[in-house]
Each structure stands twice: as structure tokens, then as C-alpha cells.
């Protein structure tokens, strides 16, 4: 910036001289102003070719087929330990297990995408159309004395029955997913396409499933049962029966697919292709992939006005996020093969041994003998935040997403029901703050 500013007098003087010449002469040749980009005018040399700085030429995939077909099989909310191939003793997943036996298996897939909060995934990640009519209570006028308006919290159910029922239901759903996956694999083989098709099996996140007396997920949840996901890649001539013990992230999937498809990379990302590591593992070699995996989630306290609002049965869960937003405060988890470190913006740090405390029940962050480890992981968290910023796009994306979603402002006005005032940037409720 300093050198550019020092050239301003030269730029202005040259421009004034060129303007005077233009007034005096009837026929004017273009001026030859010299600036930071070189001479400008008739005799100007062309600017150097400016190419997209994010472009990386396609890499060889190591397969017989240059551009194989790809199948992405991605069930929702599937725990790592819900599949027999990843150690479950009760799962009935014969098709997934058979696929894993002849494919590449990643036991270290801490696979929750960076910043994949529920809001982030809904708006920027995996958007799907509704597959059933949106039949809700608001769709039609029902019995005015219906049960919905008279539900209440009775208290704790029998823990054994509740957890057993939930677990049995989930496992039954997993077996159904396994059956459907088997149909796809068998059809691909029947069509003679298996050796020309790379199949991915992975998921978006896990499930508490009774751990910590919780079910489903949580926006700032970064525990192992939510973020440690199954990843299996096979077919298309990839090595068979390979177990890859290095760390991996969901961000690695896109560059992996691009390399398998021999497609140029044309935009910035922070993923690392797994293709070369898979081939090396097939030869009995190890290519180091990652030292750490990172997971982000949660919100700022100032995000409270636009957090989700949900009817039964999620009304209590959603209300808790508004009543105490710190419970869904921003969190960053850093993992390697031995440790899990969690930095929470509004709560205490966490440190768990992955070798001795797989369920993350004993927080060691406050113990003096583990301060050195916490310090090292804080440094890694800081390095991650500085080295993975948002990037500028090189070309304008002319695609227009069709998103049927009210703006945060409109959503907040709807919550206020016309009873808002505006102070600085955010509206506030006048007389019904308890409704928030």
C-alpha cells in the first residue's frame, strides 16, 4: 500500500499532461501512462494471463476407468458403532459388512463437517425436498379439545424400557438401511457396473441414543457418538480389504471424489484427497494424512433471536436453546488418535482420553498434569482458525438458489407477533419477553 500511494503524484501528473495534449491536438494517440500494472495505451504490453488461483489440474485416480460412476449412500444420523463392520456386536448389517470387507474402511473418520450446526446443514449443506405433504396442526382445524394442547411432562419414564425401545427402533432402522444398500450394490453388480463404479458409504452425524440420558443430537454437541462416523469406499477397482487408521474429515470427501473422477478443482477448500492414501494402504504402505480433525458447532448468544422454533415434540428442546443460549454456545473440538480437546466459548474447556475414556465421561482439562496437553491443543485450535478462513470466490456464481425461507428479521417479527420495538440493530419484545 505504501508504494502504491507514493506513485499517486506521478499518476496525477501524467493524467493532467495527457488531458492537455488531448485539448490541443485534433488527432490524439493514446497516452502511455505508466502505473503499477505497466504501460497503458497503444504500445502497452498485454497484462499477464490471470488464472483462477484456486484451480488445480485433475489428478490421476489410479483406476482402470478414468471417470468412474459414483454412488453416494448417505443415511442420516447413523452412529459409528451401529454397524457390524465397525465393531457392533448386535447390529444386523450383512450387506454393509460385506461391502466393508472388500473396500476401504476408515475407523478414524471424525466426520462431522466443520461448522455443521443444524442451521448450517439446513441452509448450506444437505438440502432435500419434502417427500410427504406438510400435514401439520396448522393445516386444518381439528378437535378443539385434542390431546396436543393438553400434553405435559410426566417425569422420567422407566429408563431401561425407554432406552431399550429407542435402541431397538434405531437398530431396526439400521437393518432396513442395510437391506436397501444391499439392493443398490447387487443391482450395480447385476448390471456389470461394479468395476466401473466407486461407492461411498458415510453419514452426516451420529446419535446420542441414550448416552448421557440423551437422544438425537444437539447444536453444540461435539462428542464422539455424534461426530465419529463410518466411512467405507469401494468398487471401481479400488484396493479391497484396506483399513486406514489415519485421521480423516468430511471435508476430505470432495477432493477425494474430484480425484477419483479426474476432475479439476476450481474453488478453494480445505479438504485433502484420500485417493493416494487408499492406494498406498492397498500396497501395505502408510501415507500420513492428518494429525488432527476439527469439528465446530453452536451459536453466539446474539444468535438467540433466530434460533429454531419447534412444535411438539421438539418444543422443550427448542425452548431450552432460547432460555439458556449458552447451552448451545459455540464450540470447537480438536481430535487426534489419543485425545479429544473441546473449547467452548461460554463454558469450561474439556479434555478426554480417547484410549482410556471412549465415552468421554471424565473431563481432565482442569487437572494440573494435563495442562501441557490442553495448551498444545489450544495452539492447534488457533492454528486451525487462522489457516482455514472464509475465501473469496474467483468468479460470480450466477446460479440462483430457490430457498423458501423467511429472513431472520421476518422470522423474529413472526415470533414477536407485532409486539416489537427496535433498539439499535435487534427488535425486542415489549410486553411478552417471557414468551422467548
From TrEMBL:
State if Membrane is listed as a keyword: no
Q: Which GO terms describe its molecular function?
A: arylsulfatase activity
How far does the signal peptide extend, from start to end residue?
A: 1-20
Q: Does the keyword rRNA processing apply?
A: no
Q: Which UniProt keywords are given for this protein, alphabetically ordered? A: Hydrolase, Signal
* Tree of life domain: Eukaryota
Q: Which Pfam families match?
A: Sulfatase
Sulfatase N-terminal domain sequence ranges: 172-260
**Membership in a protein family:** Belongs to the sulfatase family.
Name assigned to this protein: Sulfatase N-terminal domain-containing protein
